[in-house]
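Thread: Modeling a multi-component assembly for a lab meeting

Hi all, long-time lurker, first post. My supervisor asked me to bring a structural picture of a complex we are working on to next week's group meeting, and I have zero experience with this. I have the sequence lines for every component (812 residues in total). Could someone generate the structure of the whole assembly? Inputs are pasted exactly as I received them:
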Amino acid sequence: MGTVKWLQILDPLRGLFEKSGIDYDMMRRILEVKLLMDGRRVPTLIQKSSKTADPDNQSNQFIKSLWIYVVISVVLIPFIVMKTNYMFQMSLVFGILMFMITTSMISDFSSVMLDVRDRNILFSKPVQRRTISMAKLLHVLIYLLLLTGSLTVVPLAVGLFRHGVLFFLLFLVEIILMDFFIVVLTAVLYWLVLRFFDGEKLKDIINYVQIGLTIVMTVGYQFISRLFNLMDLTAAFTPKWWEIFIFPAWFASPFEWLLGQGKSPLIVIFSVLSVVGPLVAWWVYSLLMPSFERNLQKLASHHGRGKTRGFRLQEGLSMLFCRGQLERLFFRFSWDMMGRERDFKLKVYPQLGFSIVFPFIFMFNMLRSEGGFAAMRTGKGFLFLYFCALMIPSIIMMLKFSGNYKGAWIYQTAPLTDTASVYKGALKAMVARLFAPVFILQAVIFLIIFGARIIPELIVILLGVLLYVVVSFMALEKGLPFSRPFQSSQSGGGFVIFGLIVLLGVFAGAHFGFTFLPYGEYLYMLLLLVLNLIAWKLAFRELPAS
Amino acid sequence: MIETAGGRQEPVISIRNLEMSYGSKPILQGIDLDVYQGQIIGYIGPNGAGKSTTVKIMLGLVEGYQGEVKIFGRDIADGDTDYKRRIGYVPEVAELYESLTAQEYLVFVGELYGLPQRKADHKARRLMAKFGLEEVYFDRISSYSKGMRQKVLLISSLLHNPDILFLDEPLSGLDANSVMIVKEILAALAAEGKTIFYSSHIMDVVEKISSRILLLNGGRIVADGSFEELREQSHERSLEQIFNDLTGFHEYKDVAASFVSIVQEV
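Re: Modeling a multi-component assembly
Sure thing. I ran the full set together rather than chain by chain. Output:
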């Protein structure tokens, strides 16, 4: 019988839970079952036919992927090692941490927080709502702590050696407080949306909020470094009242107060806020939770009604880009699925947000460092446009997942002859629906900034990205589109994706190199064109029948 | 069990003027109902009539209704979930945690109802064996057929020996032999004094096993009585015809004919 032994570490807190009216044993049992399920991959129809599912494979994909976060956390080390200005360096550290954690909360765990499957199974049983909510919350918290743990273990160790025990303890406490704050912040955000909207509309809004938040977080993080950029790093930090709205500054203040030389009243207020804020947030959260669950009911109701339009864009595009009826069919099918599939949008759209924001962030950085706008216009800043292709590998990976993966039986019963057209159609639809709008928007903005001289460069970038799409497709594990279930924490394939991101850098690097040759960009364009033709042929040649 | 001093039975379920709407769309428009111990109630009606919503309200899955719902004499809106301890539920969609094995799932559900782990396991295993599912007890539910899942759901609703059973399409996916067993089980449970609230679209089954039939249409109860009583009132022979009659649907032959003619266009 599956049990999760280490949950016993919660046992000492039993009294605390019971005091707030929670049935501890029941809660632990629910949590245990949830974790047990996370550790298992649900074999799908497709997988079952190819290989027998390993019944004892209980390793959790998420836990396996944690080491990536350990690697990422290395970027924090320089900020920790610095001994210039605690307020500055720790604001940055907390800014990055909050950013990383919030985005992964929203993209990976919204499915846990917004799970409606529990309704029928758990709510019909004689268990208090409060107990179920707490189990759900702890479920999220456990993953959050694992994630935070792997992101901070190295920085914490570095901090301990560099700044001593007090720093270490302070850091640890502030990290935990920050985690609580993030959970509540995310939940309150969902609650607000759930409160005012309903049904399908609501799910759409969650999507948009996710994208918006991703963008805001990214820009906000830029903003922090900006804040301090203007001032002398070694000088004492003088906080301004409006910085109260920058949450990372709260968590950085105690360091300045207790270890640094900043003793201004605002620093003290921020420090107090870093403790009181999460606690108050927690209290608000517990008040809102019942209402949250009630509103969650709306998620289960389906009242969406499709609009019928005369001309459908995807039909025109499928005629333009695809050859053969089957390829066109899957172009339109994938187009519709990408637009409607809730789970798919939930995972993919925030990444689109990154793609929109990244090129500009890097451009702004350049704007600051070098000779201003005029210098940048004549420079090679347009290469930052490559950043908009950053999301392509993970979207291609996502293409094979679906919340309604069970519908994939249709692939096997329908008289499908060549799967190549299926993949090709889906891949083209991805480019047309998800990448193209982002690219076109940015290309227009870049044209305005850099002028018409970059038109050939834009074509080169487009060709490069198209090649990148096929290469990514070849490198990633293949699966028929929308045929596999999402796991609650999906992070597999991280290594390949990392490699592909490096590859994108190679594409940009090659482009940069060619610009030094006479007519270099045209040469590169030609090369890419040929490579594209070959790759799009090769990639779909030998694919399994299904 | 629940009897007053006068010997007259008190209803185990009592619904007064129940109304419910999703947004501006009314689902239930004033349901009044008393259900007594030992009754097998066939709850029928066209799609969207509000059958599942009624059941979900009684289970506390749907909130925001108007009116009064009393189960075992207590208003379910008082926030005490204890009444659910005596209720078993098979939902319409076979929703279960598929990545668990039958053993894990059933023991978990048993524990949610307050059974000790070992007892739940022992009971679940024997019940599974009675359905011929002994060998797959330790297999994941995701590998089960629809009928097997339905059996697991049935078992999960009965493990704690409930006094009221809410069954939403309990026979879907079961083969003919299993249907016979389940029908027999339901009859035997009712004879033991359990109340069974049963909704289905298969009229023949409802006709045979229900001691009382409730027909819901447009959020209202339009017929209430034993099969014999309904037959007398409407002068129809079968429940299917009564159903068509009361829901005002007569053109099924025309619809079928034009449907087939469309199929044959190619």
